[in-house]
Amino acid sequence: MQIIIFGPPGSGKGTQSVMITEKYGIPGVSTGDLLRRNVKQGTELGRRAKEYMNEGRLVPDRLVIDMFIERVKQSDCGRGYILDGFPRTIRQAEALVEHESEGCVIEVVLDVQVEDEEIVKRLAGRRVCAKCGANYHVDTKPVPPSGKCDINGCLGEIIIRDDDRREVVKKRLKEFREKTAPVRDFYGERGIVHGIEGVGDPKDIFAKITSVLDNLAKSLQYQGNVI
Ligand code: AP5
């Protein structure tokens, strides 16, 4: 199944995406992670993307679309995938339609809904592993006493993301409202958007998501636990 997890910055897309990946065995494709990897590796794309990301602006479509299409054409995406952070503009949604014959047919959009006030609070407390990208939070998932990532023996350094500064978060929310929110209507017209209340225990939110996905898998006649 081809799934989009949609929502404002800090709504929990990454958190839920990891759980979906683990339960259903499909890869998660996060454009934010792909871009951050390019920045870290110092590629030409990363060099050009960095200034936009640090200012809380969207990276231009022409830079993001090719990187994304190249990723979803890889063999591990053949059985489906979950997209986190793509499409973020109408142009990006149109690019997916242009590649439908290559497996880019979106079947469901999970629209995670969280108010701005909660988002500002979440992102102020977020910490991330610089090596594997795992998420921590000062209130809900504290950094281990060693200060190093404890996921699968990673031991990466835990840092604060450059774009989690308060003034940058405000800019990211503005970009979301102006450029990304219309993408919800694009898929709404196709009748595939499912609203998910994104406040509460992440496990409870995940239960709502699996209920949507399992019902859909049944109606589309997918087999067993496989979506
Ligand atoms: P990206 O990395 O995609 O960032 P984002 O969409 O702004 O989302 P976040 O990663 O900040 O939040 P999230 O919704 O994944 O929430 P999370 O689970 O981490 O993009 C970064 C930048 O890259 C963009 O600004 C842009 O510049 C560029 N970019 C990326 N894609 C692009 C594209 N397609 N086109 C152009 N530019 C692009 O959770 C947040 C925090 O809350 C965590 O600390 C978590 O532990 C906590 N949390 C999660 N769930 C809960 C809960 N239920 N209750 C309490 N806390 C929770």
What does this structure look like?
With 227 residues, the chain is α/β, with parallel strands linked by helices. The protein has eight helices and eight strands. It has helices at residues 13-24, 31-41, 44-54, 61-72, 90-98, 116-124, 166-188, 202-219, and strands at 2-6, 28-30, 81-84, 108-113, 126-129, 135-137, 158-159, 193-197. The strands form two sheets. A five-stranded parallel β-sheet has the order 2-3-1-4-8, with helices on both faces. A hairpin with a 5-residue loop joins strand 5 (126-129) and strand 6 (135-137). The longest helix is centred in the last third of the chain and has 23 residues, at 166-188. The protein starts with a strand and ends in an 8-residue tail after the last helix. BIS(adenosine)-5'-pentaphosphate binds at residues 7, 9-15, 31-32, 35, 52-53, 56-59, 64, 85-86, 88, 92, 122, 126, 135, 137, 140-141, 163, 172, 200, 202, 205.
